[in-house]
Amino acid sequence: MTENCESEKPSKIAKLDDITNDEFVSKISPSFETFEGFQVKRILKESPESRSIVVEGSFSGDNSVASVSSSIVILEKTHFTEKEVHGILTKSTALQCLFNNDVYYNFLCHPPIQLNEVKATLIHPASEKHIEKFSTRKSFLIEETALIYQSVTLLHIRESKFDLQWVYNILEHKKEADRIVYEDLDPDCGFILLPDLKWDCRSTSNLYLTGIVCKRDIKSIRDLTSEHLPLLKNIFDKGSASITKKYGLDKSEQRIYLHYQPSYYHLHIHFTSLQFTPPGCNVERAHLLSNVIRNIELKSSYYQESSLDFLAFEGDPLLKKYHQYIGLSSDGDY
């Protein structure tokens, strides 16, 4: 099933909140028509599973301040649509046979250029935090107790002062208003639903939207109590219903979940197709919204008292703080 989204490109939910250093924030917004002048520095990450690669480089030949800093380009092979399949399986596609054994053939196909698109995501200029985030790094599974959250994580969030202005721009309709799929502007239970950067809007098989809550005092799943049940149920019901209405994907075909740790500390909910396996939907990070609601119904303070596991990556300042805390703990109560 496909959806015409030419006027509704994926939302820039690119987690650009990591930019906190003014030296990386340019007042110039260059227009890109080609990658002319881009010089590849190194490959940060590649994924055969998602058919994607992350490249660090820089642009030369322009006079902007941003030209002297690094850029990141994420290249991804796009999903096939039924219309494209009809265009590819024609005499316009050249075949290069790699091998043949009885009835089995393996080819490299060279379809017409208009059917050979590659999705490109550009972060320009890119900060050191962006480069760290998109690099291949060793991962560790951390068990975060309630005490560790209060002693380490919460302090880290407060000290880091993550920039959420891009989120507030969406909530205030200053940016991306034309991409909103559904909105409920109630100050307590409202949210805005729009396509995520990871979705190319070409097919519902890889559907990915994000619901951003209107309330600005909820950082993550750790803050949720019974007070927030009306909000969570409203997002669960109205968000899924709007996706069913617009894209024809039934609620039972949607994966609706939260991340912990989140990529940015303003509560948001992920809506993806069950056919799609996006980064972060695994058990180390994803918490189904339906389970979150049930847990809070059982005990209002469930997420304030429970231990939560999450992934941390090599070089992450938060991981270093955990190691320091554990090393300084003399009684082992962590």
TrEMBL record:
Keyword tRNA processing: no
GO molecular function (one): RNA 7-methylguanosine cap binding
Amino-acid positions noted as binding substrate in the UniProt annotation, renumbered to this chain: 166, 176, 196, 198, 259-270
Keywords carried by this UniProt record: Acetylation, Cytoplasm, Hydrolase, mRNA processing, mRNA splicing, Nucleus, Phosphoprotein
A Pfam family annotated for this UniProt entry: DcpS
Reaction it catalyzes: a 5'-end (N(7)-methyl 5'-triphosphoguanosine)-ribonucleoside in mRNA + H2O = N(7)-methyl-GMP + a 5'-end diphospho-ribonucleoside in mRNA + 2 H(+)
EC nos: 3.6.1.59
Protein name: m7GpppX diphosphatase
